[in-house]
Structures are given as structure tokens and as C-alpha cells.
Design a protein that fits this description.
It is built from four helices and no strands. The chain is mostly helical.
Length: 89
């Protein structure tokens, strides 16, 4: 099944802008989302492949309208909500 993130071989997305000396994070919250995901994976709350799948399951409109780390945050929220349902049910 093809998902919105699967753009291999497609064109029309515009030029890729590469910043000189680009920092790994453009805002503090991005670093926090990265750290949060690392801790959750390391502690076995979910696996990295589950995280990737949660990013790829995003609604196509939401996926295209959000930044890289916004997608990460949405995936974390999705997985934690799913885990809560599993734990509560």
C-alpha cells in the first residue's frame, strides 16, 4: 500500500533547500521531542518500527502540512493514546 510519505520517483515537490551549517534542531521543542522518542523507545514503550508506522499512518493532509518534528510529536501522541487504550481495556 502506498502512503503519502512514499514519494520515491515522484517529481514536482520543488527544490530541496539545504542550509549551510544547519543545526540539528531549529527550536528547543524539537530537541525535546527527539529526546522523548528516544526514551520511549529505549524503555520499550514502543518499537522504532511502530513509531515509523505511526508517522506513515498520519492523514495525508496533516502529514503534508506539518514539519518533520511535528510529525514525530503526532506519532508519539498516537502511540501513547493507543497504548492507553490497550492498558485500560
Amino acid at each position: 500500500m502506498s502512503r503519502v510519505n512514499d514519494v520515491g520517483g515522484q517529481t514536482g515537490f520543488g527544490a530541496l533547500e539545504i542550509e549551510a551549517d544547519e543545526p540539528p534542531f531549529h527550536a528547543d521543542w524539537e530537541a525535546r521531542v527527539f529526546a522523548l522518542n528516544s526514551v520511549l523507545v529505549r524503555n520499550g514503550v514502543y518499537r522504532l518500527d511502530e513509531f515509523r508506522d505511526a508517522v506513515e499512518r498520519m492523514d495525508p493532509q496533516d502529514y503534508l502540512a506539518t514539519s518533520y518534528y511535528e510529525r514525530w510529536l503526532k506519532a508519539i501522541e498516537t502511540l501513547l493514546a493507543e497504548r492507553r487504550v490497550l492498558c485500560d481495556g
